[in-house]
Specification:
This protein is mostly helical and 254 residues long. It is built from eleven helices and three strands; from the N terminus they run ααααααββααααβα. It has a three-stranded mixed beta sheet with strand order 2-1-3, with helices on one face. The structure holds adenine and zinc ion (2 copies). The site of one zinc ion has 7 residues, from helix 7.
């Protein structure tokens, strides 16, 4: 068997998840911050645990589908019966873990896992390809050329594009500045299902809608125009995820 470095991707890379967790942490109430610290235990922060769910996915295969929901790209709306029939998609798990994190019957370890999953999945659902499918495993099956490297559409949206925008600390400073309380409040309106439909719309309009066509017999090549559009969308999605995670934790951990 040949093992190569391209295992299927399961969400924003660590840089995206760290940014979302850091943005959320900056918008927590003192009560929610204290409760989160107590649940996670000494030495842990929202950022330090934000990619834990990806690190354990290979040992816990049943959790793999929890990272996404495959809303067909040619559908306008989410349908939980069609898109999440077994209740093991990212939207169902966000609802499950939102409850588990404050379940008085849960053990301390269960509450900690619930919070670690919740922080991660709120990030994942804002990656447009984690709420969309074009019979291509959320873009994992679309091979392309990404600035001279062979990659795939899903991986480019998980981490390739964000990695080219800038370094995490610089992005955190920039995103924090733009994520005002007014914006955070506006974005926090709506349900988790509506946020998934927004992610899905972005996949329709930009991720697939603006993707350069492959030349006859050739492969798609990501160009600078696509990258510019993508950068704006990614910044928006990460800020939305951070704001919404903060509001959700503020309402839950009290
Ligand atoms: N596997 C199948 N669909 C997927 C998706 N939308 N995102 C990540 N992995 C997937
Ligand atoms: Zn993930
Ligand atoms: Zn992914």
């Amino acid at each position: 068997m040949v093992l190569c470095g391209t295992l299927p991707a399961f969400g924003w890379g660590p840089q995206g998840h760290n940014l979302i967790a850091r943005l959320a942490a900056a918008h927590l109430t003192p009560e929610a911050a204290a409760r989160a610290a107590e649940i996670l235990g000494p030495g842990n922060t929202l950022a330090s645990i934000s990619s834990w769910a990806d690190r354990i996915r290979r040992d816990r295969a049943a959790t793999a589908p929890w990272h996404y929901i495959d809303i067909p790209i040619d559908q306008q709306h989410l349908d939980m019966v069609r898109d999440c029939p077994k209740g093991d998609c990212v939207l169902a798990k966000i609802e499950d873990f939102k409850k588990a994190v404050v379940d008085p019957a849960a053990t301390a370890e269960q509450r900690k896992e619930a919070l670690m999953f919740l922080v991660h999945f709120m990030g994942d659902m804002h990656q447009p390809l984690h709420c969309s499918d074009n019979r291509d495993k959320g873009g994992n099956g679309v091979k392309l050329d990404f600035f001279g490297r062979s990659s795939n559409l899903h991986s480019v949206w998980d981490s390739g594009l964000l990695g080219r925008i800038g370094q995490e600390d610089a992005l955190f400073t920039q995103f924090s500045k733009d994520l005002t309380e007014r914006l955070a409040k506006k974005w926090s309106k709506g349900t988790v299902g509506e946020w998934a439909e927004q992610s899905h719309k972005v996949a329709q309009k930009v991720v697939y809608g603006k993707l350069p066509k492959a030349p006859a017999g050739g492969q798609v090549t990501v160009d600078a125009a696509y990258e510019r559009l993508a950068d704006r969308v990614i910044k928006d999605q990460i800020e939305k995820a951070g704001a919404r995670l903060a509001i959700m934790l503020n309402a839950t951990l009290r």
